[in-house]
Amino acid sequence: MPERLIGTTVCPISVPTPFPVGPITCYLIRGDRPVLVDAGPNTPDAWEALTAGLARWETPVTALSAIVITHGHPDHYGQAARLAAASGAAVWGPEHAADRAFIEEHPAGLLGWVDFLRRFMPRAGFPAAPLDRLCRMIAHRTDQSESVRLARALRDGETIPAGPITLTVVHTPGHTPGLFCLHEPAAGLLLSSDHILPTITPNPILQRFDDFFGDRFRGLVAFQASLDRLARLRVALALPSHGRPVRDLAGRVTEIRTHAEDRKGKIHALLDGGPLPLFDAAMKLFPDLPEDQHLLAVFDTIGHSDLLVEDGRAAYVEQGGLLCLARA
């Protein structure tokens, strides 16, 4: 049973973040050559919590042999560079170029994404003043991460010997193009990163693209396919990056699928009056969200709209210079 590994081999460390999602759980894999999965953001509070957590599990920072980053978001890679400098540990992470750009080219990767949002979001109907405020807010967060060069890009199916267990990389694109989970098949243990969370679903963060109608990464479409893949694995316990452990993966996957169908239905019902700009659809879907979460609302709306388009129930159209969703 995987529970026997928790607190002996696989040791959770809660690390605070400045983000709405709350704290991240990093996982120390103890053994002769300890491995740390995810690093937390680059903040004083996060450093204090992580080093205290390592000490609680009788593992000094200097003992780390590798730091594994599951995807290119600052709560996962933010202080990996500082940890690597303090320990000499190698940093391993996703091979996908989009995730690597954030990890290895910070702050250029982040600022390039902000520039993309400034160009694209007006086409979705996002008002200029709130968009400017949000882009400035994101751009001012560059100190929450440091760039770090990956010594090894982990590919789907590769294995990571970690103490007495061996973890297999399972590429699960969705939340980001390069996100991966780590599976220990013998015990049925899954480190599910942000892919499987116990009470919320990961936001399908919009990735940079040249043509909205062209070959862009459709996060929620990819996420659903990744759920299919996880459903085929033997998993008795999933340990997420945020929130409590998931002991019924199949049940949680069913909940996630039901949630997606429900949200698709709500968006489709909004189209009764004709084509709707994407920002307007997001505000009708999430009428009470504070302004600092409006970008996430648009990302989520586009993600579920992509699913409706994939189903043949809706189509994207341009109307009055704005990107709109319409019934097919």
Q: Your description of this structure?
A:
The chain is an alpha/beta fold and 328 residues long. The protein has a domain at 2-106 and 145-247: Metallo-beta-lactamase, Chain A (4-Layer Sandwich). The protein is built from 10 helices and 14 strands. The chain has a 6-stranded mixed sheet. Strands 7-8-9-10-11 form a 5-stranded mixed sheet, with no helix packed on it. The protein starts with 9 loop residues before the first strand and ends with a strand. The model has no long low-confidence stretch (mean pLDDT 97).
Distance separating the two termini: 48 Å
What portion of residues is helical? 25-40%
Strand content: 15-25%
- Under the CATH scheme, the architecture of one domain is 4-Layer Sandwich
Précis, in short:
With 328 residues, the chain is an alpha/beta fold. 36% of the residues lie in helices and 20% in strands.
